[in-house]
Amino acid sequence: MKNLLGTEEVKTAYRRYAAVYDRLFGAVFEPGRRATVAAINTKADQRILEVGVGTGLSLQHYRADASVHGVDISAEMLEKAREKVAMHGLAQVKGLLEMDAEAMSFADDSFDVVVGMYVASVVGDPARMLAEMRRVCVEGGDIVLVNHFASENRLLRGFEKAISPIAGQIGFHPDFEMQTLMDMAGLELVKVQPVNMFGYWRLVHFRNHLVDAAHPQRQIGYSENYKLASSSSPAE
After folding, report:
1. 1-39: per-residue pLDDT in tens?
2. From the CB of residue 38, how many other CB atoms can be counted at a distance below 10 Å?
3. E strand intervals along 85-152
4. Whole-angstrom distance, CA of residue 125 vs CA of residue 88
5. How many structural domains is the chain composed of?
6. Is 148 exposed, middle or buried, given 0-12, 13-18 or 19+ CB atoms closer than 10 A?
7. CB atoms < 10 A from the CB of 163, how many?
């Protein structure tokens, strides 16, 4: 992933997607959404931020006693999300805001949980987004991302690299590396879990504790190259 996407490129791409996003990506990405909410929305009265909330496909899965805010850079996608909130009476959704994930207006430590579903390879600068997610999440809170990462299959990887020059047109980076995310985050790793069809996407669950870069093995579930680490058996 060499070239960052521009804000206007992202807005333009998702302006096109807004009307058809649910039909294209609703069912196929649903297991990842459910797995994410199940992993983090486990307590009463949690303050949850969903970064890149899009058309709001995940909102109905949050507990009724949660306090959920969602942000997205696309006004068109947010309009679809607001329609779902009104249609289903989702009182746990307290706000849906048009906001840049790389420069959020929330105060530090505003949320117990911060999630980003299918957004890490979409934003212009994922490192800045991750820094913002860490900032607005309480110390020791949960930060979870679900994303497609560059395939380890040689043929698929070649295809991903071949189409990477048109990332601006398709609205995401198909060659985003898992290693890149780990290096950017620098957080305690709870688990990495395959989700969705063929396990082609990964749910990456962090605890909001910074990890000494010189000792990455201190991460729970750490394994070389961060390949499907197990939370129950950290490497020595």
Report:
1. 444 556 777 788 778 889 999 998 899 999 999 999 999
2. 11
3. 93-98, 111-117, 137-148
4. 34
5. 1
6. buried
7. 13
Provide the CATH number for the domain around residue 132. Answer: 3.40.50.150
What 8-state DSSP symbol labels residue 9?
H
How far is 92 from 142, CA to CA, in rounded Å? 19
In the chain, the percentage of residues whose pLDDT exceeds 70 is 75
Alpha-carbon distances, residue 186 vs 65, 86, 128, 203 (angstroms) = 31, 38, 13, 16
DSSP lists the bridge partners of residue 14 as none
- Total residue count of the chain as it appears in this document: 236
Q: Is residue 234 part of a domain?
A: no
d(CA 80, CA 101): 19
Residue at 235 is within a domain:
no
Which range marks the domain in which residue 192 is found?
Answer: 7-226
Is residue 15 situated within a structural domain? yes
